[in-house]
From TrEMBL:
Record domain ABC transporter: where: 4-236
Keywords assigned by UniProt, alphabetized: ATP-binding, Nucleotide-binding, Sugar transport, Transport
GO MF annotation: an example: ATP binding
PROSITE patterns, A to Z: ABC_TRANSPORTER_1, ABC_TRANSPORTER_2
Pfam family, one: ABC_tran
InterPro entries recorded: AAA+_ATPase, ABC_transporter-like_ATP-bd, ABC_transporter-like_CS, ABC_transpr_MalK-like, ABC_transpr_MalK/UgpC-like, Mo/tungstate-bd_C_term_dom, NA-bd_OB-fold, OB_MalK-like
Protein name: ATPase component, ABC-type sugar transport systems
Gene3D superfamilies: 2.40.50.100, Nucleic acid-binding proteins, P-loop containing nucleotide triphosphate hydrolases
Superkingdom to which the source organism belongs: Bacteria
Gene Ontology CC annotations of this record: ATP-binding cassette (ABC) transporter complex, substrate-binding subunit-containing
TM segment ranges: none
Amino acid sequence: MSKISLRNINKKYPNSDTCSVRDFNLDIEDGEFIVLVGPSGCGKSTTLRMIAGLEDITDGEFLINGEVVNDVSSKDRDIAMVFQSYALYPHMSVRDNIGYGLKLRNYPGNEIKASVDNISEDLFLTEYLERKPKELSGGQRQRVALGRAMVRTPKLYLMDEPLSNLDAKLRTTTRTEISRMHKDKGAITIYVTHDQVEAMTMADRIVLMSMGEIQQIGSPKELFTNPKNCFVATFMGMPSMNLIEGTYEGGQFTCQSFTITLNESDQQILNDAGYNGKSVTLGARSSAIRSGKKYRDAFPDCCFETTAMNSEYLGDAINVFFNAAPMNLFVGTLGTGEPDVAIDEKITLVIDNTKLHFFDTKTEESIKYSIKSAEFKK
Ligand SMILES: Nc1ncnc2c1ncn2[C@@H]1O[C@H](COP(=O)(O)OP(=O)(O)O)[C@@H](O)[C@H]1O
Ligand SMILES: [Mg+2]
């Protein structure tokens, strides 16, 4: 049983003027799979390295099971780590690399062999067990590094972009494998990635960071459906959420390209929050922007005419980019049963007004956030 707490953690590197991590607060419960996600340079690796004990904590407290361990050395924290740079022992075979952690802890030889055989099979490494790291591809080395961590059962697994060198197909299989092994072992896992798809598919809870600060913590569903601000809204989900600046007045949202009538519950929220007659930023995912008679009939006050600029064929859907000032591009997803769109052709688009987000144009904070987050806490 483990519980981990990070309290007001700050990190300032000695050669830097600013903090790389600011006021980081997080409690992690036993068995949770936490994904730290955010753009490059936002402080993910720095946070993970402080948890690992490889980097000093400038300010704040790191606790394992209620005990402050800021000054406990890395090797005494009972963690297994996987880094982007595999850090394998070059003179050892794959088998010895994977089994090394168990050997250090004096496990009997037959037990080490059985565990290594087992994990190697899960990670498709069986045929490479007698090779040296230099005889492997980058993706194979990355899997050896994973195997070396997963063969153990520590209090805590830490992984820093462990799938970055795998091709798309292997990344998906290994992702599933890591999730499965995590369920088997039940130890807390903190996983760092810049890839929102990995975060969405693997996490129990996502911690989304930007410029050294946490933007939002929550389940994948929570971040996707109730983003706290514009940054979270556009970071999670592909294609990125459309954000359009305009004005809210008398139940309608107006921007340069269109006016739509909002649904009653959104009108109430905006009125209550004092936005009548004020500027707001409308957020609409591509899945809320449709075409076709069915949608025109369902949302007659939410239609407007525009021109298709470009399209991306995805098989069972098409992402179409439209002209919609003040945005240059505006993406909608047209599915089966909706009309084909030719480039430069005029088309009537429909905004599904039951799926909209609203942000304060100045602060970029979500106007619906606190109301919706109460629903998540129920
Ligand atoms: N050893 C270091 N010395 C000084 N600055 C560093 C060091 N390591 C990282 N940084 C800076 O800290 C910030 C966060 O880096 P990092 O944690 O590696 O980001 P991420 O893993 O999210 O890409 C960056 O601005 C980076 O330049
Ligand atoms: Mg990093």
